[in-house]
Design brief:
Blueprint lengths: L1 H31 L6 E2 L3 H7 L20 E9 L2 E10 L2 E9 L9 E5 L2 E8 L2 E7 L3 H13 L5
Antiparallel strand pairs: 1-2, 2-3, 3-4, 4-7, 5-6, 6-7
């Protein structure tokens, strides 16, 4: 039983590490691309429908412009061979990639801050969706973004 539990912990940690590395790589690829987004728009009612037919589920899109985190658009990322929506927000001169993936814990709101190659990564789950925010923002600014996103009304 101890060996089985240890194996499960190691495999689970490895999967999270691989996911985190993949998302940071996606963010870096977007930054070096001529255009870091596939759909350019600050209007959530333009960005959300753009994902229809491109990814299995449209993302939750919120307007954070008044809080100095304007939406600049979105792109499709490929994570573990799955197409997932990535929203792109801006804070001052920094871009934030927010990737949404189904299958997160329904009740988990624990945030996991982390740094990989100079990029801060923050993960939380809510209502069966895992959210991963990646940016070179200071960790406190990324935490502020996550808190604002979590508490803002949806794009109904």
């Amino acid at each position: 039983m101890v060996t089985s539990s240890a194996t499960w912990v190691m495999v689970g940690a490895g999967a999270t590490d691989t996911m985190a590395d993949s998302l940071v790589s996606d963010h870096i690829r977007a930054l070096v691309a001529p255009q870091p987004i596939d759909v350019v728009s600050s209007d959530r009612h333009t960005v959300k429908p753009w994902f229809n037919g491109r990814v299995p589920a449209s993302p939750r899109v919120v307007d954070l412009a008044k809080e100095d985190f304007p939406l600049v658009g979105g792109r499709v990322a490929v994570v573990d061979q799955t197409l997932v929506p990535t929203l792109v927000y801006r804070h001052r001169q920094h871009l934030i990639s927010l990737t949404e993936m189904p299958g997160g814990s329904r009740f988990g709101l624990a945030r996991t801050p982390r740094m990989i190659n100079g990029y801060n990564l923050l993960r939380w789950t809510e209502d069966g969706v895992s959210y991963w925010a990646v940016s070179d923002l200071a960790p406190t600014d990324l935490e502020d973004f996550a808190q604002l996103f979590r508490t803002s009304p949806s794009d109904q």
